[in-house]
Amino acid sequence: MSLPAIIESIIFAAESPLSLDRLCELLHEYERDEIKEALAGLANGHETRGGGFYLAEVAGGWQFRTNPDFQQYVVRLVRTMTARFSPSALETLAIVAYRQPVTRTEVEHLRGVDCGGVLKTLLEKKLVRILGKKDIPGRPLIYGTSKEFLETFGLKDLKGLPTLKEIQALDETPRFEQQEELPLGTTDTAAPEESRLPFE
Asked: CATH number of the domain that 99 lies in?
């Protein structure tokens, strides 16, 4: 049997990304290098094919993902199932993602509002996880993002998060939109000679 085909079927059937280690456990009759080479070949083959899905390395594992070029069509199917995030949830999740490990107090200091309910929701959705307790008086819980967070946002790891410069670049106004508006009034400007012709 073809090893790439075997790996393809396993990844297709999996509910979450499969790591190389997990694939090696499942396919113990094959060498690690063989599995690694088959994965690379599969990823390259799907990319070259240019089809509706491809093999992506996500959250420390491998998973089939739909081609972003066809997002508008896929959304029609999954619109009712798409998880929606409130602005407060997205803001809290962003703080956890960029500042982790972070305590609830630190998140609330940055947001300026209570975040207990939002953090609880993010924990229930498994986008945030408890990393432990901070070694300070009160021993508050510290939070960080989960593998599900990486999977949801299609990230290989946290290095895939956009940098501050990239985020700021999205808000920059193009130069041609920054020029000063020209005055529209013509009260101080003499009318051209043609306009002074008598109406006779």
From this structure: 1.10.10.10
Using an 8 Å Cβ cutoff, are 96 and 110 in contact? no
Name the domain count of the chain.
2
Torsion of CA 61, 64, 69, 75, to 10 degrees: -110
- CA dist 39 and 8 (Å) reads 8
Which string of DSSP letters, residue by residue, matches 44-55? HHHHHHT-SEEE
What are the Cα distances from residue 80, in Å, to 58, 68, 69, 130, 145? 24, 19, 20, 30, 25
| Least confident piece of the model among 21-25, 31-35, 78-82, 133-137 | 78-82
Amino acid (1-letter code) at residue 66: T
Residue 17 lies in a domain: yes
DSSP string, 140-188: -EEEEE-HHHHHHTT-SSGGGSPPHHHHHHHHPPPGGGSSPPPP---TT
In a domain, 191, yes or no: no
**Does 162 map to a domain?**
no
Q: Of 73, 96, 124, at which residue does a domain stop? A: 73
pLDDT digits (tens, 9 = 90+) for 156-170: 888 888 887 777 776
**Which amino acid, 192?**
P
Residue 184 located in a structural domain: no
Q: Hey, CA dihedral for 17, 165, 169, 90, is it positive or negative? A: positive
